[in-house]
Amino acid sequence: MVMDHNIINDKGRIKSTLKGELYTSPTIFQLEKENIISKSWILVGFAYEVEKPGQYIATKVENENVLIVRGKDSVLRAFLNACRHRGAKLCSDSSGKTGAIRCPYHSWTYSLDGSLIGVPNTSHCRKELVNNENYGLESVHLEVWHGMIWVNLSENPKSIEKSLDAQILERFGELDTFSRYQIHNLQVAHRKEYEVEANWKLIVENFQECYHCSSIHPELTATLPEFRSGVGTQNAVGGGATFDDKVDAFSINGKGSRPMLKGLLPEDDRTYFGMTILPFVFINLTPDHVIVHRIIPIGAEKSKVICEWLFDPEEIAKPDFDPKDAVELFHRVNLQDFEACEWCQENMGSKAYKDGGILVPIEQHVSHFYDYVLEAIGMKIEMSNK
């Protein structure tokens, strides 16, 4: 039986998902690289990691190697990690500290502000090259937002406020709740990386809905019993979930002695908030720590997810600090979610999913994410006429 999505949508009972090809097609993935990855604010690290002059982070965004470095003037800057001479990668380590940026190939040297300051064995053209802005490192747009470092490869990106603050307003209806967690004062105590054999969009839509929670998340629903209903914290503006009466902390055993994060109010205690920062970041707020997920799309059918658990550095410094009780809870949730995404990915190319699947009312807020993707890659009209 062929489902008439237009009739069903008109009745308001269910909505259609994206077509299966949008999760498998290399052509679609190329459109996403050009119109989403290369034009969005991408989370690459935390400001405290490059707090001192000369400290740097080297990473990759789309096909570009990017270098984030703190200058001697204490200004944080981002550059393409490529020598202007012959294109060699300047910094190969993922992080470090340096007084100047020296190319390992021909020893061209750049100051921490990106200007070219050294070109050996070029007396005949040295004056033409050194301190010439045409030969300095190519800049990349960088912003620090709530202590997180974001870069944008496009020439004229939207402001960080329009891109990210706007999403916090959509999630909470105000900015104060998110700000109270003071992420800029937290540090990563634990980091895990996951290889997921699934398209990045499956990971996003999975995180946005809780219809699956009672089926695959026994530990999470034991902590947040409201999730058994299929309604998550992203179903409504300002939504949060309350801990079970037997639970004292967001941890695998429900126990914990860490104090609430500085800045939180009494009403923030025993409450969890989840949110999506499109396109590739999830942020989970709990009373004593924050969990941040970063998705890195690898291909049309493969993704990497970096998950980081952030705590108050004063707690981290205590001799008996051990975050594994908190880490284990969401680590299990991650494994369960990513396996479910892989179940779906295996059938995205099936003729059963050629025209997509369906969203029942309890998960229809995910359709806003579909609209975002389709508009970005220029397929909105085609899909709306499905």
From TrEMBL:
InterPro entries in alphabetical order: Rieske_2Fe-2S, Rieske_2Fe-2S_sf, Ring_hydroxy_dOase_asu_C_dom, Rng_hydr_dOase-A
PROSITE patterns from the UniProt entry: RIESKE
Cofactor(s) needed: Fe cation
GO molecular function: 2 iron, 2 sulfur cluster binding; iron ion binding; monooxygenase activity; oxidoreductase activity, acting on paired donors, with incorporation or reduction of molecular oxygen
Signal peptide: none
One matching Pfam family: Ring_hydroxyl_A
Keyword field: 2Fe-2S, Iron, Iron-sulfur, Metal-binding, Oxidoreductase
Gene3D superfamilies linked to this entry: Naphthalene 1,2-dioxygenase Alpha Subunit, Chain A, domain 1, Rieske [2Fe-2S] iron-sulphur domain
Domain of life: Bacteria
Keyword Kinase attached: no
Domain Rieske: 41-151
UniProt xrefs under PANTHER family: CHOLINE MONOOXYGENASE, CHLOROPLASTIC
Name of this chain's protein: 2Fe-2S ferredoxin
